[in-house]
Amino acid sequence: MGWTIEERAEEILANLLADARLRIYVREQPIPKVHRGSEGVWLVFLGQDPTTRRPSSGPIITKVLDLDHHGSLRLYLTQICGGLGIDLNQHVYATNYIKNLFARPPTEIREIDVFHEFSGWWLQLLEEELAEFPGVPVITLGELLLRVLVRGGARDLTPKN
Question: For 63, which DSSP code?
Fold first, then answer.
């Protein structure tokens, strides 16, 4: 019997919590579930990580990108889908690159480069996860995430003044 993405993610989380150097950056909380459209996947949204600014405020995130609540991010993603003629609930798969929550927002962790340090744990799993959707467009959410994922040969398309 093969492992599911969720089972592999929980195993990686357990290994991170057992790592003396990295566990101080990990919030011991269940990994949010992926969002999978009910009628097939035509688009993938890829988030950075599920960490919220204030862990003690608001509901615990139980689904990737907090798609189980009707907040501003869900509204924004619904508008993107509407512009593309698809339905978020029917045609979208949403996941995070780094599946664990951090003890603090990654932008506030300065002692280590969390994306570099945690990539060794999560990148292969993400590649396996997205392999299920060959040819399906992926929209990344977050500039830091894009920098981590873009490999050699990419060029800066920022307009120059």
Answer: B
Residue type present at position 51: T
Find tokens 């962790």 and name the residue: 109
CA distance 92 to 117: 29
For the chain, the C-alpha Rg in angstroms (whole number) is 16
**CA–CA separation, 65 vs 75, rounded Å?**
11
The pTM (predicted TM-score) of the whole model is 0.86
CA distances from 47 to 1, 79, 111 (A): 29, 17, 23
Structure tokens at 75: 């509204």
| Consecutive H or E run containing 106 | none
Q: Where are the alpha helices (DSSP H) in 19-156?
A: 72-84, 88-91, 114-130, 143-149
pLDDT tens column, 126-145: 999 999 999 999 999 977 77
Angle between helices 5-18 and 114-130 (to 10 degrees): 160
3-23 pLDDT, tens digit per residue, is 889 999 999 999 999 999 999
